[in-house]
Amino acid sequence: MAIELLPSDADSPMRHRLDPTLHRIRRGAYVDRAAYEATPVHDRHELQVRAVAAARPAAVFARESALALARLPHGRPANVFTIGAPTASGRRGGVVASREAIGDDDIVLEDGIARCAPAFALAHLARVGKQADAVGALYAALRLQLVTKDQVADALGRQGPRGRRRAEWVIAFADPLSQSVGESWSRVAIHRIGAPPPRLQVRIVTRLGVRFPDFLWERAGMRPLGGEFDGAAKYGVIADANGVQPVDAVIEEKRRDDALREHIDTLHWMWAEAQRPERLRDMLSRHHLPVLSRLLPGW
Question: Using one digit for the tens of pLDDT, what is the confidence trace for 44-64?
């Protein structure tokens, strides 16, 4: 992250607070406002972590905060997380400190900041964090080949018993065939509504080339149903990859989707459905997939 933190001193706090070109990250830490507003919301947690690191140079960052420093998906945590300081456990000033012990082999030091290694942070998040965040983070780490499932399971064995069964479920469920965090969130939603597990990235040859729907279900006596997660950035990514304007990418993607519909039925959804499983349940039910009347528990 290219934004530079600007610490305040005894003479500058009021001046910094009144400066409209600066944005306050936390007490005593400011950044350029324009650069901050240009930073995607899901990347801003790293700034919080680096501001805490500047004030607490001995801290070891954990969970979502460690993943943010490792440039892995981490949700949108409301707090910064640290670990390994028995005298600093609890919540204070937006920092949640865990007294849980951590060995030197599970700590990475980068840019002068100590954090949990990815496998340890992923196991920790899977134990006590949000279900969809944990699956999305592990999917990305697997896809980037930063960890293996065995390494995360080994790291889990070096942690406390709380949430162990939840973490084991995350490790088994995460799949690097997912193409995005949104698809991983969608898979968790599909699980929670009790729909049949879909096949991922199935190859389908159309008149306009090969397509790989995000999800595919077989339906007795009907055409297969394809599912597509359309995140807000999808068409911008397609445009960048093909060197065209976003509007042209939308038109071309519509043409390719029409060609795909000659082989299967297709259903599209966005973050609103991935984050609210009951909405996705209604959509899939209308397309004749069996679902549960109540959501399976999430955490």
Answer: 999 999 999 998 999 999 999
DSSP 3-state assignment of 166? helix
pLDDT digits (tens, 9 = 90+) for 272-298: 999 999 999 999 999 999 999 999 998
In the predicted model, is pLDDT for residue 87 greater than 70? no
CB 290: neighbour CB atoms within 10 A? 11
Parallel, antiparallel or unpaired: strands 265-269 and 113-116: unpaired
Contact (CB, 8 A) for 268 and 230: yes
Contact by Cβ (8 Å): 194, 291:
yes
The phi and psi torsions of 183 (rounded to 5 degrees) equal -70, -40
SS (H, E, C) 78-117: CCEEEECCHHHCEEECCEEEECCCCCHHHEEEECCEEEEC
Measured CA to CA, the distance from residue 39 to residue 225 in angstroms comes to: 37
Contact (CB, 8 A) for 287 and 225: yes
Q: Where are the domains of the chain?
A: 40-176, 183-286
Question: Left if phi > 0, otherwise alpha if psi is -120 to 50, otherwise beta: which for 104?
Answer: alpha
C-beta of residue 8 within 8 angstroms of C-beta of residue 54: no
